[in-house]
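Section 5.1 Outputs to date
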Amino acid sequence: MKTCFKCGVEKPLSEFYEHKLMADGHLNKCKECTKRDVKMHRENNPEKVRACDRKRSKAKHRKEYAAKRQVKYRESFPEKYKANNAVTNAIRDGRIDRPNHCEMCGHPCTPHAHHWSYLEEHMLEVEWLCVVCHMQLHHKK
């Protein structure tokens, strides 16, 4: 058992993250308090967090993992990969234009192409959405 210095509640060691530099091998703040603090920090310092995330994503082991994940995704969803390529090529060739705003909320941005259908005849029929709207749409499913 250990007492969290943040909330003052005594909890079993399994409720604390491991930390090899601490005397008992566990952090002095419980998992619940740690998660809450991290969430608050991310909300209160978005630019600083984004800069850190961008820097972290450039690490060699993360790039290797991302490349493996991308190959697996392409193999798992060939129809999505083909549709995305079709849109990218159409934009490059000038057959379709990417607007400079989200069609759902109107936010000025470089929107993502959202496919409602991956069938060959509908590959270029897309809705242009900002990152936020696109994520919200997919999380509703």
